[in-house]
Design goal:
The structure is a homodimer of 307-residue chains. The first copy, chain A, is α+β, with helices and mostly antiparallel strands. The first copy, chain A, has eight helices and eleven strands. Helices cover 31% and strands 24% of the residues of chain A. The longest helix of chain A has 18 residues. Chains A and B meet through helix 1, strand 3, strand 4, helix 3 and strand 5 of A and helix 1, strand 3, strand 4, helix 3 and strand 5 of B.
Chain lengths: 307, 307
């Protein structure tokens, strides 16, 4: 088909980048029905009716050989990563995971033992975080790829969107940022217990998990909330040995970013230390009116089509 | 990692084939909870609780460049095919589609217009069959791939599994089989209205959609039901110009295969002709006790890792 060959004037997906591509693609979809509380754009889709008093959550995510893992990566870690990323998204809504379906593409020359290793990693996440793996799909492909779609649920009162932040809210992140390629991107713990505790007891105004790096993800949260942000770079908690640029831009931290009403921020810090003494919760800045928007963050974050 | 390099004695996924691979992988998963009515192995997972009196359905499916479509395929047809395959699976349970999430992998040099064309095809299925597309994921990859995960629902009384067939049941297929690569594999109509009518009025004992070819799919239905099958090859409805081997083995028919109690088979045939006069419903054989199992079907059906 002549229309498919890239001609000099054809814009490629690499040229416009991931965010612009997604925005153009989502614009082509029919508007969703009244049952959709939050569609594309948050960590998960939020659907009603769930069970009485609950919303249903729905999320898909994939990891690709050469982009998110290497052929040499230990297979169990590939399975862990693919599942744990989606658990992290469900957690970021304040939710609990439910059922998952898994798609595994493999080059035909991969050893069966590697496929089994990937499934052992999947099974480990399923056991630890209470996910039912209820279906899957396999196909041959030139490149290995593992995609996970997961349902979840969250009490209507505890559902935390990206869009609820207000000017003046205090910004927090869990854990330490940066350096994920040294190994953390394959072994991270989704902050499910922490996010549930936050959603149940502290009602963050907005929350998301950091997958593309603070420099890219914080502007998304701020934009969804219709506000700007100010970050004190010195306060950003860095993984040992990481520069600020790495902490902002490496991505794949899978830590929580949250906006809290300022009048409860101090109280939360104290309660957090008692509850999760091994994991830091760090105040990094605040949301502000859009006109004050400032501190363009160093470090570009991850961009899938432009890398 | 030495363990990942294929050594002479390593069994590859191509050597054991898709069914054996899937069986080994599913065996590694933790057993699912009481909320799972049917896990891996049927057209969809069947989950409770859904809304009162209903089951939830959950299914994932993917299509890969070079396996299920070509780089030259019209983009809208790629989107149509990926979505319609999953609608077909939901239909085969007697169900109705709900929400979908979509993963699109694209080589960075693909034109944006092609990505948009794919989404137009997705949107068309969403509009026609009433699906809410509520999320998605994009990533760069060497090979284009489109994966769709979909939820659905079915009244508990109308849910049709593969496993309910009994010896003596009459086997029917809708439409005509074979020749899908001449174009039907990109433009087929999921039999949603037909399957709903069957599930609501006629309660098939077992039903599935034909994706890998009758020669491969009928043994799956029979095995799930714990019975054998006998097919009269002369009765298999063929697409014009197709041989019997093509009708049995080409795959990607997306027609329904169903097992009906023999005492209602004649009545169903008459009612079908009045209701769906343009689409044939053809009696092709019957289920039988396993000891009678016979007629190994010509035509091998599709095998993803062995092709």
């Amino acid at each position: 088909m002549a229309g498919r060959v890239t001609r000099a004037r054809d814009v490629t997906v690499a040229e416009i980048g991931e965010d612009a591509l997604v925005s153009r693609l989502v614009g082509l979809l029919p508007s969703t029905g009244r049952g959709v509380v939050a569609g594309p754009g948050d960590d998960c889709a939020v659907l009603r009716p769930g069970r009485s008093g609950w919303y249903d959550l729905f999320k898909t995510d994939c990891i690709v050989e050469g982009v998110h893992f290497l052929r040499e990566t230990k297979p169990e870690k590939i399975g862990w990563k693919a599942m744990a990323r989606v658990v992290s998204d469900i957690a970021a809504m304040g939710g609990l995971p439910g059922s998952a379906v898994v798609t595994l593409l493999l080059p035909p020359d991969w050893p069966v033992a590697a496929a089994e290793g990937i499934y052992r990693g999947i099974a480990k996440v399923a056991r630890i975080f209470g996910v039912n793996v209820v279906g899957g799909e396999t196909s041959a492909a030139a490149q290995a790829m593992l995609s996970v779609s997961m349902t979840g649920r969250v009490e209507r009162d505890h559902c935390v969107l990206r869009s609820g932040g207000r000017a003046g809210d205090v910004l927090f992140v869990t854990g330490r940022l940066g350096g994920s390629l040294k190994g953390k991107h394959l072994t991270f713990e989704p902050r499910l217990a922490e996010a549930r505790w936050l959603a149940e007891k502290w009602k963050p105004r907005a929350m998301m998990d950091l997958s593309d790096g603070l420099a890219k993800d914080l502007p998304r949260l701020a934009e969804a909330s219709g506000v700007g942000f100010q970050v004190d770079p010195d306060t950003v908690p860095r993984t040992r040995g990481c520069t600020l640029a790495e902490a902002l831009g490496d991505g794949e931290d899978y830590e929580l970013l949250l906006a809290m009403a300022s009048n409860v921020a101090g109280e939360l810090e104290k309660a957090w230390k008692r509850k999760f003494s091994r994991l830091p919760l760090t105040r990094i800045g605040r949301l502000c009116p859009v006109v004050e928007k400032s501190t363009p963050l160093e470090g570009s974050g991850w961009e899938h089509f432009r890398k």
